[in-house]
Amino acid sequence: MTPPDAEPRTRAERVRQTRERIVSVALTLFAEKGYEATSLQDIASEMGLTKPAVYYHYRGKQEILNDLAEPVRTTLSELLDRARAQPLGPQRTDILVTGLADLFLARRKFARIMAQQAAFRDAMRTAVGGPGILDTLIEVTYGPNPNLDQRFAIYSATSVGPALSALGDHPEEQLRAVLMRAFRRIASVQ
């Protein structure tokens, strides 16, 4: 990775750095102004760029959100693969509980924005994988024939953003313990 004060050597490095800056600025503006109220022009102005310069990199906010969601999508996919490698039971549950707690804690800023903004929450869910990813999580947690209570439990578990946001800035180890206890209870739904 190029140090922040070093001039990028290649065009590809400049493009990557510009895209990273756009995503970072967009996330800040989404938090401050709201997802719906933030335009590509707002992002360009904040960066000192023209709107066409931002548009060169991203055709719209959903594309920016897709890049914001990529680490979540990748982490969740890897978590599901690790869990699937275990038979249904305590080891699989431990992998899921720990992984989900870590994922939510690593994305606390997203959780705050999602708690406050329905439009961001809906767009982020689409970017992460939509309903299909939830169906996969349900199947990995409970097996191929989950009942209605189990399906509801997973939908509830993946909506903890507002609750996590409402808990404020408690130490991470306390929030992790709370999340893990909650996810264990959810995973035990019969």
The backbone outline, from C-alpha atoms, is elongated
Helix fraction by DSSP (H/I, runs of at least 4): over 70%
The helix/strand order is: HHHHHHHHHHH
Number of domains: 2
Number of helices: 11
Low-confidence stretches: none
Q: Could you tell me the strand content as a percent range?
A: under 5%
Give the overall pLDDT as a whole number: 89
Rg, Å, rounded: 19 Å
Count of strand segments: 0
Structural class: mainly alpha
Largest sheet: none
N-to-C span: 47 Å
In words, what does this structure look like?
This protein is mainly α. The protein has 2 domains: 11-59, Homeodomain-like (Arc Repressor Mutant, subunit A, Orthogonal Bundle), CATH 1.10.10; 69-187. It contains 11 helices and no strands. Helix 2 packs across helix 3 (51-57) and helix 4 (61-84) packs antiparallel against helix 5. It is elongated, with a radius of gyration of 19 Å. 24% of the residues are buried. Residues 39-58 bind DNA. Residues 16-76 form the HTH tetR-type domain. This is HTH tetR-type domain-containing protein.
Spell out the blueprint of helices and strands.
Elements: H1 11-33, H2 40-47, H3 51-57, H4 61-84, H5 90-106, H6 108-116, H7 118-128, H8 130-142, H9 148-157, H10 161-166, H11 172-187
Helix pairs in contact: 1-2, 1-4, 2-3, 4-5, 4-7, 5-11, 6-7, 8-9, 9-11
